[in-house]
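Recap for those who missed Tuesday's class. We walked through two folding examples back to back. For each one, the amino acid string is listed first and its predicted structure tokens come directly after. Nothing is annotated here on purpose, so try labeling regions yourself before you check the end of the notes.
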Amino acid sequence: MLTEYIGNIARKKGVGPLLAIEAAKTKLAHKIGQASGLFYVPKVLNLDEERGVLDFERLRGLSTLYQLAIDKDARSLELYEKAGQALAVVHERLVLPDEMKYELPSEWMNSSDENVFIHGDFACVNVCLHEPSGQLVILDWSAAPLIGRTPTFGSPYFDVLWFASCVFRGAPSKKVFSWNAEEMTDAFLRGYAKAASDKKLNRFSDYLPKICRLQRKMIWCLARRKYPLRAPVYIFSQMFMFIRFHRFLRKYRRQGSRIFAKDSGQ
């Protein structure tokens, strides 16, 4: 979907029914953010399904968590932890009408009643700091293109691990050795565990191979968009980060919820 900026409007163009789902999710998320005080979601100003146009409130002065990490901003870890808390609240409170319940691929559906309505593209480029107000801002409530933009419902591990994968995959090629992905992801997971009081992140063993497959697929998709001379450098750096990502997740697979119980003071 394409986004253009017109004055104080951020306009997204796309398929009408998909925009309608995104508008509904965004409106609910805006209310959840206000009630929780943890984050802000730009208001929906107008939806025209026939024209395929969705208008949002435009916020100026946004810095993505990704850019803050590149800049080594001292607030980064605190904001990554807050992002985890915000996602846990979304998973607890976001409820769409039945006609808007579209499931993730079957491998990302829990066999129990643990499925939730998801953000769908919760990534460090869609979570921002609004510098003028100091608020955390969450954007782009449509699902990631890699899973088809449609899904709205499934395992909370999808959003959690998609964010984690973005942190590792986002390492700039020239900074792979200094990119503190493990520390940032630790902060994010710690925040999620603190806010999700009735859940424990103790099923990494079930989802590790699934997110790794998605991570490899995303790396190759992005590599194909690079200039031919830059693609090999990108692939090499991403393979290095992929190994780190896999090792990081194996730690959680081995230790289960014990690390989170310790971090959340339980």
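Example two. Treat it independently of the first, because the proteins are unrelated.
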Amino acid sequence: MGKETPAIHTVSELKSSERSTGEAFRAVLLLRKIASRTAKNNNPFLLVEAGDRTGSFHFTCFNDNPVYAALKTAAEGSPVRLQGQVEYYQNRFSPRVTDIETLNEEDLEREGMLERLIAGPPEDADALMEELFDFIARIRHDALRATVEAVFAEISPVFKTTPAAVSMHHAYRGGLLEHTVHMARAGRALLPLYPEVHADLALSGILVHDAGKTVEYEGALAARRGRSGILQGHVVLGYRMVRKAGMKARLDPELLERLEHIVLSHQGELEWGAAAMAATPEAVFVSMVDNLDARMGMVQQALRETPEGEAFSDYLAGLKAPVLVTPPAGGDAAGR
């Protein structure tokens, strides 16, 4: 009787404590990132991030591995069938990949794997879109509301499915919608504490701050920066959208300048991609709410994806630390 073919595992299954070193596995995954590196002995190797809707992991592939050439020429965002052996590095799942086969969307649909790859927000996307348009309707200033409506008239067909990032936070299908609605919820809760902040201007800035990402990113299965994203970036792309919409809505020039400034400065730091440092009450407010939800989005995803039984998530580059995923003793998350 022939050797049994290993089942196709998800990332969460591979990371579970039931997997033992040396165990063979098969998985259908997306190649999210592929980076070339050079070892201390000057030998090249690849650092690869692969994942599905249940999570992701990194592995290294040295140039003496038979799959090195295939990985070297593979495009980020490509779906692949991997075979390998379970291995760990510094207590993290970091397998040895022994075989790779590139797939296409037809292969995935035929094998029923497409839904296993594309992660999405835990909340219903239609409900989030409805809430988004409700927030737009709450903008009392007519010209500001008309400006935001004009932006979403242009981007709403793709806004629902666009990720908020390639890898750092809300980096999945519909992540931008989730991130924006969560920011609007947080902003609504915090605005009463800061009467100095123009509420309609801040809410408008929250809703359009990442509009440029609908153009910056491309790729049906995994997000990557397209030509416009590389040459201009979402901050500039979003600024241009807002300026066009504001002029069409005949928004007062000073309010338009302030709304543009929110878009240009929301990244928080110049080294993070901001075109300017936040220099108005509304820009500071939006930048801080953006940073809060980005970081908490990383935490929420870590809580969802860390295998049961593990105390800590994997190291999160955006937080510069792993996350303790076990809840505190003596009370629930609401503090009751």
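Answers for example two:
The chain has a mean pLDDT of 87.
The longest helix spans residues 281-305.
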